[in-house]
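Example for tutorial group B:
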């Protein structure tokens, strides 16, 4: 992709120009930006996308529209010391740090077969897959990431289309590169009557929850979501991280299956609800 290099110095100058406005707006900011006029990125989100080399233009709080010509490649962003070990640690080695090799062979074999195609698709978006730690598990679920940014791919991942798999990996890479820290032990307690999901949802969101048997009406879906997830509120930042990871998938990789496209909308709705409720629980 074509990018013009913007030096750190000019970035810092930009940052100094507008700190006040950005701070104020971040306090009123709800739910993760997507770079649109009504939902601009925060400065932190913008700099993270820039550092990945995946900035294609968008609105940033306090700055208005910033086009892709002012982005700069990841190679020039080396100040933070947050670079992971790039020793090519994806794939699980035969010593099997998660258990016996015989159990995980199927997924590992599938991964070995599709990995070249996935790697080249990701490379087109600026991602070097060898910079991430990816392990293949034979386990229920799709994917997860641990606190050390190790990405684990599980059974359901290998039932997805290649495009959906690429999108899931962009999601996990966004967590690795852009997540803001929060205390994982932080819990918010609120009354059940205050744990209320919005009944305003798009048709995609409705169809998604209907498809996973949460109900056949909006009212049913909202009630079932509230019942299923009450009592597990974490720090709001956790939900912002999720919203941002899903928005980045959408922005960079719209070309997914209809099923997964709806799921992303459903997840964004879900995490927006948890974010709003968590904020309210903290008195914001
Ligand atoms: Zn996530």
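The residue assignment follows.
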């Amino acid at each position: 992709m074509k990018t013009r290099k913007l030096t750190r110095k000019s970035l810092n100058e930009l940052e100094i120009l507008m700190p006040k406005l950005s701070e104020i707006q971040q306090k009123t900011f709800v739910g993760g930006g997507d770079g649109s006029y009504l939902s601009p990125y925060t400065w932190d989100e913008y700099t993270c996308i820039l550092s990945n080399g995946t900035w294609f233009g968008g609105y940033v709080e306090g700055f208005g529209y910033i086009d892709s010509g002012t982005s700069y490649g990841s190679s020039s962003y080396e100040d933070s010391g947050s670079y992971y070990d790039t020793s090519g640690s994806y794939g699980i080695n035969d010593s099997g740090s998660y258990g016996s090799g015989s159990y995980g062979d199927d997924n590992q074999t599938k991964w070995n077969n599709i990995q070249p195609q996935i790697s080249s698709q990701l490379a087109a978006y600026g991602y070097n897959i060898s910079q991430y730690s990816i392990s293949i598990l034979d386990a229920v679920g799709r994917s997860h990431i641990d606190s050390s940014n190790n990405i684990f791919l599980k059974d359901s991942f290998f039932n997805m289309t290649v495009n959906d798999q690429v999108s899931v990996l962009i999601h996990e890479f966004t967590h690795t590169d852009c997540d803001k820290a929060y205390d994982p032990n932080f819990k918010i307690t609120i009354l059940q009557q205050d744990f209320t999901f919005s009944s305003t949802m798009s048709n995609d969101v409705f169809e998604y929850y209907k498809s996973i048997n949460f109900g056949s009406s909006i009212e049913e879906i909202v009630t079932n979501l509230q019942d299923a997830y009450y009592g597990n509120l974490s720090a709001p930042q956790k939900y912002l991280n999720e919203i941002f990871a899903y928005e980045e998938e959408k922005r960079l990789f719209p070309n997914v299956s209809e099923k997964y496209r709806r799921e992303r909308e459903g997840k964004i709705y879900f995490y927006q609800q948890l974010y709003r409720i968590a904020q309210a629980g903290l008195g914001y």
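The chain has three domains: 8-76, 101-178, 192-281. Compare this with the pattern of hydrophobic and polar residues in the output above.
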